[in-house]
Amino acid sequence: MGHVNLPASKRNGRQWRLLDIVSAAIFGLVFLFFLLVFTRLGDSLAASGRQTLLLSNADPRQRQRIIELVEAGQKQAIEACPADAVDHMPCEDPRRNSQLSREMNYYRERHCPPADETPLCLIPPPDEYKIPVQWPESLHKIWHSNMPHNKIADRKGHQGWMKQEGPYFIFPGGGTMFPDGAVQYIEKLGQYIPIKGGTLRTALDMGCGVASFGGYMLAEDILTVSFAPRDSHKAQIQFALERGVPAFVAMLGTQKLPFPAFSFDLVHCSRCLIPFTAYNATYFIEVDRLLRPGGFLVISGPPVQWPKQDKEWSDLQSVARALCYELIAVDGNTVIWKKPARDSCFPNQNEFGLGSCSESDDPNRAWYVKLNRCVSWMSSAKEELSVGTIPKWPDRLAKTPPRAGFVKNGLDVFEADSRRWERRVSYYKKSLKLKLGTPAVRNVMDMNGFFGGFAAAIKSDPVWVMNVVPSHKPSTLAAIYDRGLIGVYHDWCEPFSTYPRSYDFIHVSGIESLVLYPGSDKNRCNLVDLMVEMDRILRPEGTVVIRDHPEVIERVIRIARAIRWTATIHEKETGSQARENILVATKSFWKLP
């Protein structure tokens, strides 16, 4: 068969069209490579791919049927999530949050999916997961296989953050601003502020890295809440918790941090890179709300005497002067201020337009509350709250906290609550033989903390307790901080801001009250979702203790079996007047096949 001879013009046109297509394809591949490797879109797409399976089983009708079967005791088991979900945090989901505004870091804050869009499944541990290294050895090393994320070790190892050695991650105790170790850095701060002696007890470490500062402050009996967002370092809070150091995931963005006013004796920032003077000093105002009168603010790193940041450093000093902070020292790239103990000179004329909040403003409201553009009056707090006036640690633990009055008959209620928890904890240890006080328990959560009575009753144990005060209940968290304990506000109809496998021991008294509307028997959410979330944040072989009415405990044990817990029901302790039973459960150590 003969060949067809096309005119030269047509041959050249076809060749050029083919070259155009090939060139466009190559350019497109190069552009896509650039997006995936050098921009946030790559992280977003990767996260989306990792969570496709996780989200695919979130059929609202199917999940509701499962919930009904579980609550009815129909031997319906909750299935395991896919392997890629080992570190899933529902409210800090990169796939969802990357689509949000970056203004004031809004996209890094909590953004929870609706309950019916959340898959009803159990988060599995990593393939090579081991029971964590016990405290205090865990401060210095953890199992690499429990969180095999090498990004921080690769990027920050030269600064003493962490490094891999054999099957462990090793933590030398350093940080970007203290590469020679947190111990020396804390000793330097001790030249200017009363680190020793119990004057300082509660501290906040912002942008904490792997929380070496907070870990080594424990030796001084200073309890530090460390926080950082889920960011490009991926797992810094996860490392902190695995080390046995108090920490949770948070971002100082558009909303108040979930703490009451005047909670912390010390606020610390070591290269946290928070723009304190931006947005008319909004972030400095939030720090001021959280800092106890007479407390200390320490900022190390930019912009303090930092190259090419003269304007930012000058502005930072101006804001501090406007709020009447006393400059204690500037030592290299570290500045230390002391907050006044009373409203001594504010408001001053200032370029930032800082003004006082109205008398109707409640500085303790902090659950999904927008950041203030005004300064909270310290006169809203009693003078006995200030550092140097409030009793020293450990005396302040047993004293009636100044803000116990937030509850009706607060003095009497506090004293009765303290006696009740001493009796209950004794029963837990002697009769129920719980692991409290043993090396198996380090990270503890009380999901319904009230005055912190449970935490106070285990003060001699080698533990720290995250006291959670439900956002729809009386605001007793301020009293918890006045006692020298720590905690956060939270609504248990949403997931908690922490990684899976964070806690060794979870305690809750009155679990049904966490899902009901106040003063009602109507559900805001359901117990199945709540207990699946408890399972997410509990470590394998961890312990759960739940106290409630007998009929509630019967519902709870049905759910416990569906989520693979081994559970038993016990009578209450002698002397208790409450109509309640106690469920003690252990999370089984299972793995995906």
From TrEMBL:
The chain crosses the membrane at residues 21-41. One of its GO terms (molecular function) is S-adenosylmethionine-dependent methyltransferase activity. It is an enzyme of class 2 (transferase). GO terms for biological process: methylation. It is found in: Endomembrane system; Membrane. Belongs to the methyltransferase superfamily. This is Methyltransferase. The gene is LOC111479681.
